Amino acid sequence: MLNLLLIPAIIWAAPSHGIPGAMEVRPGTFVLNGPMTTEIITAMKAAKITHVINLRQDGEAGFDSQWEGLAVSGAEISYCRVAIGRAPSKDDFDLFRMVLTGFPADARVLIHCGDGNRAAAAACAWMILDAHMESEEAVAVAKQAGLARPETEKALRKYLARAKA
Predict the structure, then answer these.
(1) Residue 2 located in a structural domain
(2) Collapsing DSSP states into helix, strand and coil, what is residue 83?
(3) Which helix (H) or strand (E) holds 104?
(4) Number of domains forming the structure of the chain
(5) What global pTM score does this model have?
(6) Domain for residue 1, yes or no?
């Protein structure tokens, strides 16, 4: 009987979404640590992702906005682009949060940029201010998901300090 009780806990803890390079930061909300590929789009469809938020800017190396938008939409996944820089402004964070909170409650969302840094920072702001996660826990999750650049973390912390004031 004891073995039967342990098996569900082990299965529940194991990542099951199957999206290469993605981390589920909150139930149904994923951060992709890297650029979009055909393989990832196929995996997103299988994982029942309903929405993608792309944070990449025009001119980033290896980024073809037309291909990505068409490929994601062609997989019947809603696609939204909110281009933000490495040190997002208050307006960048506000717009991202407005878009994400505007999705249906049962949406399964994948957020991405070129390397996960901006996507993790934007998700962190949302996790703290809208999903009510404790600040340091959310920052730790964001770092695991790809938040790595000091200028991005500094912009995030500045935004959070203002939003909580």
Answers:
(1) no
(2) coil
(3) none
(4) 1
(5) 0.88
(6) no
